[in-house]
Amino acid sequence: MSLVELRDVHKRFGQVEVLKGISLSLEKGEIVAVIGRSGSGKSTMLRCVNGLEQVQAGQIIVDGIEVTAPGANLNLLRQRVGMVFQSYNLFPHLNVERNVMLALRLVKKIDKQEARRIAREMVAKVGLGEKVLAYPDELSGGQQQRVAIARSLAMQPTLMLFDEITSALDPELVGEVLRVLESLAGEGMSMMLVTHEMNFAKNVADRVIFMHEGRIHEDGPARDTLLEPRTAELRSFLNAVLH
Amino acid sequence: MIREFGAADIVYLIAAARWTVALALTAMVGGGLLGLVVAVFRVMPVRPVNWLAIGYINLIQGTPLLGQLFVFFFGLPLVGLSVDSWTAAALSLSIYASAFFGEIWRGSLQSISQRQWEAGAALGLTYRQRLFNVVLPQAVRISVAPTVGFLVQLVKNTSLTALIGFIELTRASQIISGATFAPLPVYLTAAAIYFVVCFSISQLSQMLEGRLRVAR
Amino acid sequence: MDYQFRFGALLRFTDEIVEGVLLTLQFSVVTMICGLIIGLLVAMASTGRVKALRVAARVYVESIRNTPLLVQLFIVFFGLPSIGIRLGANTAALIALSINMGAYGAEILRAGFESVRQSQVEAGRSLGLTVGQTFRHVVLYQAVKAIYPALASQFVLIMLATSVVSSIGATELFNKAAFIDSRTYLSFESYTLITLSYLVLTLGFRALFAAIYRLAFVRRAHR
Asked: Which residues partner with A12 through β-bridges?
C-alpha cells in the first residue's frame, strides 16, 4: 500500500471550495513537489495530510492511519509525519536544543540525556552544531528554518511535509535550507513539498503535481512535467514564475 | 484638641499605609484566583460560559468601583454577613481586580499565534501539552508586565475604601488632617507615600517588560 | 435571607437620577476637554527641545499617575485653602479631574503623534503639499484615527471616576445615591440603582463611540 493515499478529497472554507476532489498517492521514498498559484489549494492539501485541516468529503490514509476517520489518532499520525512551515514556528521561549527536545520528551517519553543527545545530533546534521544554546530570535531566518527541520527529523518521521519553507526567506538564505532538503532526499526520506523553487523541484523531486483551482491539473515525472508541460495552464504558470 | 503636624503623624501615616498594601495584596491574591476563572470562562469553547464572563467583565468595568464598594458595604449585611469595612473592601476590590486580570490574561493567551498551536500539533503534542508547554509559558511572560502594571491601579484604588470607613492611608490622612488642621502637608505626605509605592511598582513593571520583551 | 428588596420605592426619584446623569456628563465632557488641552501642552513640552520643560512634564505625568485621584482631589479641595486658594466643591472637582486627565491625555496624544510615521510626512511634502496641508490632510486624520479608541475608553473611565468627587460634595450622579438613601433609608437599593445607572451610561457610550468610529474611519478607509 502507498505511504500516502488521498481519495476524492473535498475541502471547503465556509462557502469557498478550496479542494475539489483531490486523489493522489505517494510511495515510500518518493519525493513529490506540489506547485501552483497561490490560492490553488496546495498548502491546504498538505495541511489535510497531517490532519491540521478537516475535510468535508473523501478519504486520506497516511502510513496505515485513516486521517479522515472520526476519532483518528492524530497525535500518533503526527509523530510519524513531520511538518515544516513557511513561518518556521519555533517556540520562542525555548533555545534551539530545547525546541528539538520538547516533543522527544513529551511525546516519545525519551529521557533527558538521550533527548539532548538526539537533539544535538539533529542540529549538527542541519549544520548548526554551534547554535544549540541560541534562542530563535538570535538566529537568521534560514537558521531558524533549519532548526525547524531538525525538530521534525528528530521524531524520526516516515514522511516529511514542507509547506513553502523558503518563501519567507531572503534570497541569499534559500540555498542553505534547500541543501538540507537535498541531503534528506539523498537518504531516501519520503517528502511532499509545496514550493516555488522550480529548479529545486526539477532536480530533486521525483514527481511534480501542478494544482490549479482546487484540482490536480498535471501529475508526472518532475523533469518531463516541468520541461514539457502538457496543459496551457501549467505553461502560463511556469512562464510567470520563471521570467 | 489641635496640634502641630509632626514626625509622629508621618509615622502614623506610614503605619496606615500597611493597610493599603495589605488590602492591595489581598485583592491581588483574591482577584488573581477569581481572574483565572474569568479568563478560562472567557476563552472556553462554550458560548454561554463566554457570555457569562463577558457580562461579568462589563458589569465590573462598566460601573464605578466606588459604587461597587457601597453596594457590598450595604449589601453584605442584608445576606447576613459581617458589616465591617475590611470585608466589603477586600471582597469588592478582589472582584474588581478579577475582571481586569481576567481580561489581561485572556489577551495574553490569545496573543499567542495560532501557528504555535499548530507547530505543537504537528509534532504530535496533545492539547494539554501544547497548552502547558508551548502556549502558557509564552502567555505568562507576556502578561507579567501588564499584570504588575495593574497593581498600580489597585494600590491607588484602595484609597476609595476610605469612603466606606476603612482605615488605610487615605482615611488615616483624613483623621490626621482633622486633628491637626494641616490638610495640605498631610495630604501631600499621603500622596508621597502612594507615589513611592506606585512608582516602584511602575518601574518594576517597565523593567520586567524590557527584560521579557525578548520572548524567552 | 428575609430582606425584602424595595427598588420600586425608588421610582419617584427618576428626575433626580436624570439630573445626576446630566451633571455627570457635564463633568465628564468638561474634564475631557480641559484634560486634553493640558495634555496637549504637556505632550508638546515632553517632546520639545527645552530640557527643563521635558523634566517638568515627566514629573507632572509621573506624580499624577502614581497617586490616587481621591488624594489629588483632597489636596485641591482641603489643602489649597490653607495657602489662600478657596474653591467651591464643583470647581475643585473640575480642577482635580482635569489635572488628572491631563497626565493621561498627554500620554495618549504623544502616542498618537508618534504613530504617524515621518515617512508619511515626507510623502505628503514630496507631493508638494505645504506643511499645513500635510498636517491637516495626512497627519491629523491618521493621528486621530490612532488615538480615537484610547480617547473613547478614556471618556468612559473619566465618567466612572467622576463618582469620586461626590466625596467632597460636588453635585453629580453618585451624590444622588446618598440623597435617595437619606430620603428612603434604602441604602443598598439606592447605591445599587445608581451604580447600575453608570452601567447603562457606559454601555450606551461604548456603542455610540463604536458607531462613530465605523462612520468616521472604517467606511472612509474602504471607499
From this structure: A17
